[in-house]
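Risk register update: the risk that structure generation would not scale has been downgraded. Supporting records follow, first protein first.
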Amino acid sequence: MKPFLHGFLALTLAASVAAPLLAEDTVVSVTFDSITQIQTKSGETLDPTLFKFGKATGGNEDSSRASGSAWHKDKEAACRWALLGSFMKFQKKAQAAHKRVVGIRTYAGDQESAKADACLCLTGKAVVRSVIKASYK
């Protein structure tokens, strides 16, 4: 029983030391143009004419969250991929409804950006997260 207890205590101590290192979040900003240059694994790209950044429009608002691996990756590249996933969800809905995506805002924690040249996401050592809110018009 004693070896089990020592192993358990060692594992608990290692986890408590490593957790703060993995929890580090950094706000990363990339341009919308840099995201439109990426192709999905299936070869799809974003149609920039469908998207308009700006303040909330007051209509039915939709949101999209995406996350991905940031482990041993460039933070900006990981951010672009996460944002691409979120924007692709909006694009598919907009195309199906024959509408545009308007009032786009990106979020990183409590920071908000409504600018195409400053799309925000949070990156840590292991995970990158993006949140986008917008409406269809």
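Supporting record for the second protein:
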Amino acid sequence: MNCRQFEDAMRSEFGSADREEWKIRITRENWDGIPPSEHMTHLVGCVDCQTSLYQFLDVRDFLAYESHPCFHVAYYSADTSDRCLKADRSGVYLTYTENGGGIVIGFCPWCGVVLPTAILPHLDKSQVT
């Protein structure tokens, strides 16, 4: 199992998990008594996925990360205290700049997945024939 497969399965594997219990497990690296599975084996050995799961537990009720290229850009562009990206209407991801603009990024800074970079003009319905 790789990280992408783990993150894709977080909702099915941990969607109803006890948030506080799992946050304590992750923080203390306490893996005693967890049911054996491919997902748990990966989690125990991958600090990056431990971080993703920790974040997922905070946003699972309002973040539809499955509609983004990866969990990282979904999380870091969502309405969270850690937000450092903007999701443009065209589907591109931008870093924040001091003047309120942004720089289009082509790869996720955390996992390297390719991101869309084509900025399409926003058309209103009167312009569509």
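Confidence is low (pLDDT under 50) at residues 125-129. On this basis the risk owner (M.S.) recommends closing the item.
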